């Protein structure tokens, strides 16, 4: 795309940054503001990452973020990168503006989505990430803050954003079918990871499983617990509670005994359970997820998807 020569200030030239009032969001890496394309007058989101606030590894991550977005261009449920500027003081990413805010905000009300709403949103998010995987990109930071809505309502279309933590898999090769190295010499674990959804792709499936759990029940499967699962003792400080949460994640210890689950179809519960499989080799791929019966199950007031 438009990469500038040092000092040419293309970002300021091509886009007007609007004022403080139009901050769309703030994350670990900087802030996202509304900008305007000078030529077309179209509004865009501009992610600004000020260099003096970045560590060396953050700077390396910016080029991965840009590369990941360029590779995943062209999907209706992935935000599109229009332009990237490497200015003396900051990096600027001009991104398709998604106006409905974060999925996080919709969830913050505390109510679960209806199963129909959950299925629509999830269907799009799964398609988006399956597309990323097919193009050699692992997202690695899927959470409701990074999933945006085209309008501020639960039935709106979703778009996956924030490739700031993404990893890309060898350029130009198909991640799932091309083992690296000369075939006769290649180690079994390389074949294994290439053949069985390796390179971390399965971790996106887990995160989407956590998201699906939250959509259906209104609460996360893993959160800071107050008692130890081993000893039954009360946990006092934050650090102990966090360690306990990680222990539960490692063992896949969560429960579906909230009353809301009795109103969820067995197909939905089965999909959540399979996506939250602890062993990444046993966890389904997104292609397998897309073949799950939930998508075509009869839900009240909704036609089967796909
Ligand atoms: P970080 O890596 O700092 O988390 P993000 O890319 O997630 O940065 O952006 C931070 C927040 O800005 C998002 O959670 C969202 O609220 C908002 N945002 C990001 N991209 C867009 C966009 N394309 N359209 C609208 N809002 C956006
Ligand atoms: Mg983010």
Automatic annotation (TrEMBL):
Domain Protein kinase residues, every copy: 18-295
Annotated binding of ATP, by residue: 47
Coiled coil location: none
Keyword ATP-binding found: yes
This protein's record includes keyword Kinase: yes
GO molecular function list: ATP binding; protein serine/threonine kinase activity
The entry's keywords: ATP-binding, Kinase, Nucleotide-binding, Serine/threonine-protein kinase, Transferase
Protein family membership: Belongs to the protein kinase superfamily.
Designated name of the protein: Protein kinase domain-containing protein
Organism encoding this protein: Cafeteria roenbergensis (Marine flagellate)
Full protein: residues contained: 102 to 407 of 483
């Amino acid at each position: 795309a438009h990469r500038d020569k040092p000092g040419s200030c293309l970002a300021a030239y091509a886009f007007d940054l609007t004022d403080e009032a139009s901050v769309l969001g703030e994350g670990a890496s900087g802030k996202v503001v509304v900008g305007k394309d000078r030529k077309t007058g179209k509004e865009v989101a501009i992610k600004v990452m000020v260099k003096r606030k970045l560590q060396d590894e953050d700077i390396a991550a910016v080029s991965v973020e840009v590369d990941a977005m360029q590779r995943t261009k062209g999907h209706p449920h992935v935000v599109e990168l229009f332009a990237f500027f490497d200015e003396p003081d900051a990096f600027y990413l001009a991104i398709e503006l998604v106006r409905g805010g974060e999925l996080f905000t919709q969830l913050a009300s505390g109510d679960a989505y209806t199963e129909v709403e959950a299925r629509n949103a999830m269907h799009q998010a799964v398609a988006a990430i399956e597309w990323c995987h097919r193009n050699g990109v692992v997202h690695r930071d899927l959470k409701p803050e990074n999933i945006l809505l085209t309008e501020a309502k639960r039935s709106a279309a979703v778009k996956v954003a924030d490739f700031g933590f993404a990893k890309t898999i060898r350029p130009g090769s198909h991640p799932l079918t091309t083992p690296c190295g000369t075939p006769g010499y290649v180690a079994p674990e390389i074949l294994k990871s290439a053949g069985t959804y390796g390179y971390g792709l399965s971790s996106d499936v887990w995160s989407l499983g956590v998201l699906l759990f939250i959509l259906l029940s209104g609460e996360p499967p893993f959160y800071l617990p107050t008692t130890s699962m081993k000893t039954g003792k009360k946990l006092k400080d934050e650090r102990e509670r966090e360690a306990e949460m990680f222990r539960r994640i490692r063992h896949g210890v969560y429960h579906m005994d909230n009353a809301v689950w009795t109103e969820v179809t067995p197909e939905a519960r089965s999909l959540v359970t399979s996506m939250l499989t602890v062993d990444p080799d046993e966890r389904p791929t997104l292609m397998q997820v897309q073949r799950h019966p939930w998508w075509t199950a009869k839900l009240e007031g909704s036609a089967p998807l796909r």
